[in-house]
Every structure is written in C-alpha cells, then in structure tokens.
Amino acid sequence: MQGNSTSTVLGRRLGGELLKLRTAAGLTQPQAAKVLTASTAKIAKMERGWVPIRDPDIRILCELYGVQDPAAVGGLLELARIDRERRKAKGWWNDSGVSPAMREYVTLESAATAIKTWQIAYIPGLLQTERYVRALNPDDQFVAARIARQRRLGGEKPLFLQAVIYEAVLRNLVGGSEVMHGQLKHLTHVIDEKPNVSVRVLPFSAGAQLGMGCGFNIISFTEPGAMDVVYMEIPRTQAWIEGGREAAEHGERFDKITEEALSERDSRSFISALSKELRPDA
Question: What angle do the packed helices 100-111 and 70-88 form, to 10 degrees?
Fold first, then answer.
C-alpha cells in the first residue's frame, strides 16, 4: 500500500498487459496520458497496478495501441472488472484467521473460474479434511478459514479445480494413519461427487519431472491461459508470477506433469487402495 492506493495482483497483471501493448506500439506514457486527458503519473500507476482502471480508459488505450481483436479487448475488460470488484469486496476472509499474506490469494480464489494445482508436499487446501487441516495447524481460526475456502467447489458457479498430486503427498501420514485414512476417503468422495474437480496422481514410477522442486497454483479468471497468474508458496514467503513467458512456462510444465500422471480413473483406484491400507480395522 501507498497512502490510500493498493497494488493488487490483478491490477499488476492488467497493468503489465497495457504496458506491453504500449511498448509494442512504440508509444510513451505521456502520449498515452494525452489521449486520456490524464497525467503521466496516472498512466504509471495504471501500469503498476496501483489504481483500478475504468472500461472507457481501456477501450481508448486499446484503440491507441492498435488492438482490434474483440477477444483481446474483452479479456482486458473482464480482468479490470474483476480487479475493481476485488478491491471493494468484503468477504468472509476480512474477519477470519487468514493471514495478510494469504488474504490476496483467497480473494483471487474467490473470483477465479479455474485453478490448476501441482502439489508435492500437502493435499491441496481445497480438498483437505478438517482433521488434516488441524494436524497442519491446530489454530481454530486457521482451520475455519481453510474449510470456508472449500465453498468455492460448490454453489451456482463452482470453481473448476484440476489437481495433480505427487505420490509422496498421499503416503505422508499427516496426523497419523487414521487422519490420512479419512483424508484419502474424502478425496475419492470428491472425485465421485464433484464433476468440477479432477484429481490425478503422479506416481514414483514416473521418475523426476520439471517442477519437482516447488508446487504451484495457476489461477484463471477468464479463458485459461489468457490472463493467468501463478502462485507459489516457498519457505517463509509467497511468490506471484503475473503473466509473461514465465507464467506460460508454468502452464506448459503443468501440462507435462499431467501427461505423466495416472489417468483420473487409475488415480481414483490408487487413492482408494492406499486408503484401504490405512483402514483402522485393516
């Protein structure tokens, strides 16, 4: 934050696209400011994600930059709309146990249409049982917030979740064998009951893959790939990749990992077999 201004992930993603278009057109910030009857400082803030951007300004800039593709303009307008809504949104996360560092991710998750997640350490948060969450962090507010996030998998416009999970995650006895038995049973239940959720397993037999060093989430707000951002949790901090070639590379990496993973049907059978091995009365 700077004063009353806040730089958001979506704002920076949108601003980065406008900056790229302006640069490709060979124009300067003062030239862009002139057509908007605005200051150069305002253009700089727009391109850095510090301020929400109005639809008329986007249309005028696109015309100036020579962008005529309706789909391209529409993608920018949709991203601007979502960013404006997120800036003023007052969701459950404002009065919950969500940390400030995680709050922006949760607000984006609430607005996303689809998420692709590659996990090498834990079951994806949207698929965790309450006991599994509590084994990771017993704080009641943390647990409540994690469970509240899972509402996105239901409702009128449920989030589409595509998860690829490394086999080690499923074999790691978080909370002990009884907790993991329940967690694995829950995974199979979600697979069976929620058509908007896809779960696949990358087995040990697949060998080393690019991306083994860090899990990541690819968040889509319009058509997948068009305006994606990438979120990664690394020790003691979080990292965002707001578009560009690096974000595209993560999309390609996810696709390659998915190709090496078991099919959805075989993944479900694999998870079910592991669950039976951990059954308390086994």
Answer: 130
Numbers of helices and strands, H then E, in the chain? 12, 6
Over residues 100-105, mean pLDDT: 74
Whether residue 118 contacts residue 168, with contact meaning beta carbons closer than 8 Å, is answered with no
- Write the pLDDT tens digit of every residue in 115-163: 999 999 999 999 999 999 999 999 898 899 889 999 999 988 899 999 9
> Rounded to the nearest 5 degrees, what angle is found at the Cα of 247, between the Cα atoms of 244 and 248?
85
Question: Please, is 135 exposed, middle or buried when counting C-beta atoms within 10 Å of its C-beta (0-12, 13-18, 19+)?
Answer: middle
Pairing relationship of beta strands 160-166 and 197-202 according to DSSP bridges:
parallel
Return d(Cα 40, Cα 24) in angstroms, integer: 18
CA atoms within 13 A on the CB side of 204: 4
CB 114 within 8 A of CB 207: no
7: Cβ contacts below 8 Å, ≥ 6 apart = 1, 48, 49, 50
Which domains does the chain carry?
A: 9-88 (1.10.260.40), 95-277 (3.30.870)
Euclidean distance between CA atoms 182 and 160, whole angstroms? 23
Measure the CA–CA gap between 266 and 27, rounded to whole angstroms. 53
SS3 94: helix
3-state helix, strand, coil in the chain (%, to 5): 55, 15, 30
> In 3-state terms, what secondary structure has residue 183?
helix
